[in-house]
Amino acid sequence: MEIKIANKEIGDSSPVFIIAELSANHGQQLNVALDTVKAARDTGADAIKLQHYLPDTITLNCDNQYFQIKQGTIWDGTTLHKLYQEAYMPWEWTEAIMKTAEECGLICFSSPFDSTAVDLLETFDVPAYKIASFEINDIPLIKLVASKGKPVIISTGIATLADIELAVKTCRDAGNNQIALLKCTSAYPALPEEMNLRTIPNLKETFNVVTGLSDHTLGIGVPVASVALGAKIIEKHFILDKSLGGPDASFSLNPVQFTEMVNAVREVEKALGTVNYDLSAKSIKNKEFSRSLFIVKDVKEGELVSKENVKSIRPGFGMHTKHYETVLGMRFRKDLSKGTPLSFDQLS
């Protein structure tokens, strides 16, 4: 299975597609957002992702018990509307951010959170859409996004298997099979023991889609490890400087950390290679340091081969060690000195 986002093929034979998530890491300042895009380019990321919602399109300005955040998160003590008022990206920035991303050679797309966001993003002809974890049960939104005929990346942070099945079916029923599923744990930050990365290959096998990881752990170890399990997309929150603060700062990577992650991912990609038992030229040469049978003390013609005068030692210029039991008790045909590689033509 493969999908294509702008000029990037994403699939088994392609490099991992690495997304820097801007999210709320702009501090409501356009210059910070634009500088973050430029910094993302310098890390080696493939894409910058935005989020398109307004406080009033994602929730209600209401402070009754249903809208208070008290789920044991880093945002407890406020309301949904107040949180999103702090976190949202002004939509009038969209053109400037997308233009800067294009100038930087970055793919830019977004997570829409309602139909008005989709309508806006369509005016910019975004190359893909992302469905956030908490929107996986918004079937009308998924149906609308899928109908645009562009790749749909879906995070599974709060999803049961049935939720994922319905979301995938909704895309396919809309005639869109360009689907990627991201393993995600919707905890902020997430603990490594909560990640269950082995789900990634199971998602691929179960749904026949491109798979990846949307990661909220604090470091880079988890996303790097996911590559070895088949992740072809990695999404990670990115911040210019953690001193900016904001709702997502604590679990975002700064430019140095993000660069380290990108470099580590690329190193793992090289290391994975293919199933291959052939030795490289260097390994063949180094095989000379392996063990073989050597004469380890001076011997006379007719003397018996014994454990005292023949041993398995390094280097590897002598007889293969598999013949050790066979040669014990044979006789030397001539005088030989210590340090001579053993061979059958020396024995009788």
Automatic annotation (TrEMBL):
Gene Ontology biological process terms in this record: carbohydrate biosynthetic process
Organism: Sporocytophaga myxococcoides
Start and end residues of each AFP-like domain: 292-348
Transmembrane segments annotated in the record for this chain: none
Protein known as: Pseudaminic acid synthase
Matching Gene3D superfamilies: Aldolase class I, Antifreeze-like/N-acetylneuraminic acid synthase C-terminal domain
Molecular function terms from GO: N-acylneuraminate-9-phosphate synthase activity
Pfam hit, one: SAF
CDD domains (alphabetical): SAF_NeuB_like (cd11615)
SMART domains reported for this sequence: SAF
PANTHER family, sorted: N-ACETYLNEURAMINATE SYNTHASE, PSEUDAMINIC ACID SYNTHASE
